Amino acid sequence: MTFQGWPEDALDFYEGLEADNTKTYWTAHKATYDTLVLGPMAELLDELGPEFGETKMFRPYRDVRFSSDKSPYKTHLGGVIGSRGYVQLSANGLAAASGMYEMAPEQLEAYRRAAADDAAGKELEHIIGAVKGHDIEVHSREVLKTAPRGYRPDHPRIELLRYKGLWAWKAWAVEPWLGTPAAKQRVAGFLLAARPLAQWLDVHVGPSTAGPKRRR
């Protein structure tokens, strides 16, 4: 099968799950999830994999062990593409990301050294500007309120130094193209535009031996 997009019933499934996040709802609509949500995502990842790298999908179940919210199911389906890419479907539409959602301590140290360096830091600024030129957000989930220890508050890249992660993000609201193969082109276009940022992170930060959570 080739990727043909997600039909409206896939979005309706998540709207229903948001309203009734129970095993009863999940069981009654499992066939819809398997066929209209999971199936197209698997097809999309299969088609993107050869160009962008190994793919995998996240499980639909929430880890509720340390959460006050005990709802059992995620209200979105996410998939990994390559070393830095991510795609997500929910009732709100489609989204894609690339980068490091959060960094382990040794990664954060390496990132800040590179961002503070004149050559590597200026390269990063140029890359971020180019990515933003594609109408893509670039930011961090967590940002320090002050300069990190060892860096002066008036550093020319102090905003980047205060980041605790760095990733590109693009969200698309529900549009007719979501139910067509054009959805693949949106994700592929994003990944191509964000690739220089992912490459910079690979070169200057790299993987963590502690295995940090890179994505949701």
Give a concise summary:
It contains seven helices and six strands, in the order αααββββααβαβα.
Q: Strand order, biggest sheet?
A: 1-2-3-4-6-5
Q: Specify the overall morphology.
A: globular
Percent in helix:
40-55%
Would you tell me the structural class of the helices and strands?
A: alpha+beta
Strands, count: 6
- H-E order: HHHEEEEHHEHEH
**What's the assembly state of these chains?**
single chain
Overview of the structural elements:
- The protein is α+β, with helices and mostly antiparallel strands and 216 residues long.
- It has a single domain (8-204), classed as BirA Bifunctional Protein, domain 2 (2-Layer Sandwich).
- The chain is 44% helix and 16% strand.
- It contains seven helices and six strands, in the order αααββββααβαβα.
- Strands 1-2-3-4-6-5 form a six-stranded antiparallel β-sheet.
- A hairpin with a 2-residue loop joins strand 3 and strand 4.
- The two termini are 27 Å apart.
- The model is unreliable at 212-216 (pLDDT under 50).
List the helices and strands and how they pair.
Elements: H1 8-19, H2 23-28, H3 30-52, E1 55-57, E2 76-81, E3 85-90, E4 93-100, H4 105-116, H5 118-132, E5 137-139, H6 158-161, E6 166-173, H7 182-204
Helix pairs in contact: 1-3, 5-7
